[in-house]
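We emphasize that the prediction below concerns an isolated chain of 83 residues; any contacts that depend on oligomerization or on bound cofactors are therefore not represented. The input was used exactly as deposited, without trimming of termini.
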Amino acid sequence: MQRFQDNYYSGLAQATQIALINAIAEGGEYDSYESVYLPDSAEWYESIQIYPNQMLEDPYAQYYSEANDRRWNEMVDEQYEEE
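Result of the prediction step, given as a token string:
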């Protein structure tokens, strides 16, 4: 075990891990685990509105929008400037 701890990415450690994974996957238990179907249920959670018809207003939204518009217009105007 010590030789695997010293070099986790050695070829021997990797080969051992692959062999273990294959041995686990070949068992019948893995196949039965993989074939289990878990149905969804619409009754798990109740659909409610915590704050119905509430609008959250951003007091700075207009300022940011105008600043973005102004910068956009500046960039468009820069495209048509003659050097």
